[in-house]
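Give me structure tokens for this 190-residue protein.
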Amino acid sequence: MAAPEALERPLPKPRRDLVGYAAARVLEALLEALLALRFLGRGFTRSAAGKALQAWRALTGALPALERDRIAEKLGEKERKRLMEKGIPRVPSTRLKAPGQLLEEAGYQHYSAYTDKALDLHDYQLHGPDPAGEMTRYPDRKEAAKDTLYLLSKLARIIEEHVKPRLEQEGKWAQEHQEALEGLQRRLGR
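Here you go.
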């Protein structure tokens, strides 16, 4: 796994280095996913769910940077400007649905559904298991753990199939990306 400092480095500014920004966010997604698996292995299901959300949020920040042109062609001028100024650099948990929908329109099948799963896990992180189903969709930690693994496996697949080739083409796929992806896949049993 990459050194912890990798999560503490300043992000490149999207206006100056869009692909570098995407590469940094992808590494963040991989490292957060590995942390989620570590928490899950130790029985900290709520913390694992939170890390899975952070991993998904980082990936959701990276993909619009990589797919800017494909996404921008579907937007009006005002929306394109917002994408560059706020949509790419700022992806709060409360605003994950819109970029998820744009990514699905850009060809990432089922991205919105995966984003909904990430948001469900966020609720679980905040509220824990809820047999009554009033605060979260998860009646017990077993179901939350299963969805955490499911989301992380989708994240690894998207990175392997879509992101890695793009970053390799741009010369931005580093050894630490490869090591983190391989570690994630190994721990997921892929």
